[in-house]
Amino acid sequence: SCLSYEFPMPIEVIKVMSALAGNLKGKTVYCPYDSLYLIARQVSEQNGIPFVETPYVSPIPWLISILTDVNIHTIVSSDPLQRPAFFEGDNPKKFDFTIAFPPLGQKIDIEVVDKDLFNRFKERTSSGSVLTLRHIIAQTEGKAIVAIPGNILFSRGAEHSLREDLLHNEMIEAVISMPPALLPLTSIPFSILI
């Protein structure tokens, strides 16, 4: 099963993830898959500069801007894996931070890996979680705080290769296992990877 893009994430989890980033004032923060703009809103409240990339077009960010003091102005409707939208020249843009709660358990067509023009993906896999982490690494200069499914931590294959690479390159600061049944309507276990 897959947790879809528009699945509501508990605001308490979003606040924890934002707090784990530290001081966001004036920093660029990449928020892929944030279709309900919960992460972008939290980043904006911490005086960060959110960049949202989501496959869905929605009036929600403008409603949030009208009804609150939060200004969400950098929004792109594009699939981050298939058609990344933020660039510096010919390369993916590097953000100061990434805070992301991507879809959990998503399977991606292997063509996405085969047709990638930016060499983001070391593993040839259909695991959306592995590919999303590779994409986030390609677009993050500093710290990334990402919700990951439990299988990333224990599975073999592409997940094992990713873990090995992250450990070898000293890219992991912490893994925080979240309590079960925290997400509404699903029992998918997840952790927060920093």
Walk me through the topology:
Blueprint: H1 11-21, E1 28-32, H2 38-45, E2 49-54, H3 60-67, E3 75-77, E4 87-88, E5 91-92, E6 95-100, H4 111-114, H5 128-138, E7 140-149, H6 151-154, H7 158-168, E8 175-177, E9 190-193
Parallel strand pairs: 1-2, 1-6, 2-3, 6-7
Antiparallel strand pairs: 4-5, 7-9, 8-9
Helix pairs in contact: 1-2
Characterization of the model:
This protein is 29% helix and 21% strand. It is an alpha/beta fold and 194 residues long. The strands form two sheets. It has a seven-stranded mixed sheet. Helix 2 links the parallel strand 1 and strand 2. Helix 1 packs across helix 2. The chain starts with 10 loop residues before the first helix and ends with a strand.
